[in-house]
Amino acid sequence: MNETLKTLTSRRSVRSYKYQQVPKEIIQQILQAGLYAPTGMNSRDTLFLVVTDKETRDKLSAMNAAVMGSDKDPFYGAPCVITVFADRTRRTFVEDGSVAMANLMNAAFALGVDSCWIHRAKEVFETEEGREIARSFGIPDNYIGVGNCILGYGDCELPKAVERTQPVIFVE
Ligand SMILES: Cc1cc2nc3c(=O)[nH]c(=O)nc-3n(C[C@H](O)[C@H](O)[C@H](O)COP(=O)(O)O)c2cc1C
């Protein structure tokens, strides 16, 4: 099978991680894939917050858990989280952020790094505390959290894919 297609179909969401940091040069390569994702009207309206600092990572994890009323780590022990933001003044901001998320996860897998999309970036960064944190990193208020891409090295086998059964309709 073509290498790209192999990556796209073999990537899985990993939900248990070793606390082993992803080297910065690998994170940079993963980010390139996010930056080169398409955006509506080429608006390039995404913004990537890369957190490897444990204190900040733990804070964001606790805030994410709080949205669910949970005290478990929603980042599953992963040491790195990239939150993708997008400029809500652009009509396609959710789509732009989402396609960047997909690129990050697929690039990570191609480079031997496990990942998972973790939801609730919007809710976390919409809180007053979340906005303060975003501002402290220079993120303007018009940027909305679209998704969190956790990155790391799984301490489990790669999960088996659930069979894809969505309808596909050919009109020939
Ligand atoms: C929009 C979106 C939100 C998701 N949120 C979470 C989440 O909060 N926690 C989680 O463990 N997985 C989350 N996932 C991962 C999905 O559960 C996962 O992609 C799905 O089960 C299919 O598994 P696969 O990625 O291994 O193919 C999310 C995926 C998407 C696309």
Q: How are the SSEs ordered, and which strands pair?
A:
Elements lengths: L2 H8 L6 E2 L5 H12 L10 E6 L2 H15 L11 E8 L5 H18 L3 E5 L2 H6 L1 H9 L6 E12 L18
Antiparallel strand pairs: 1-5, 2-3, 3-5, 4-5
Bound molecules: flavin mononucleotide.
The site of flavin mononucleotide (FMN) has 9 residues, from strand 4.
List its salient traits.
5 strands; alpha+beta; 6 helices; 40% helix; 172 residues; binds flavin mononucleotide; globular; 5-stranded antiparallel sheet
Please give a structural write-up.
The protein is built from 6 helices and 5 strands, in the order αβαβαβαβααβ. It has helices at 3-10, 24-35, 54-68, 93-110, 121-126, 128-136; strands at 17-18, 46-51, 80-87, 114-118, 143-154. Strands 1, 2, 3, 4 and 5 form a 5-stranded antiparallel beta sheet that branches.
In short:
The chain is α+β, with helices and mostly antiparallel strands. The chain is built from 6 helices and 5 strands, in the order αβαβαβαβααβ.
Low-confidence stretches: none
- The radius of gyration is 16 Å
Tell me the β content: 15-25%
Ligand names:
flavin mononucleotide
Instruction: Write down how many β-strands occur, each being a DSSP E stretch of 2 or more residues.
Output: 5
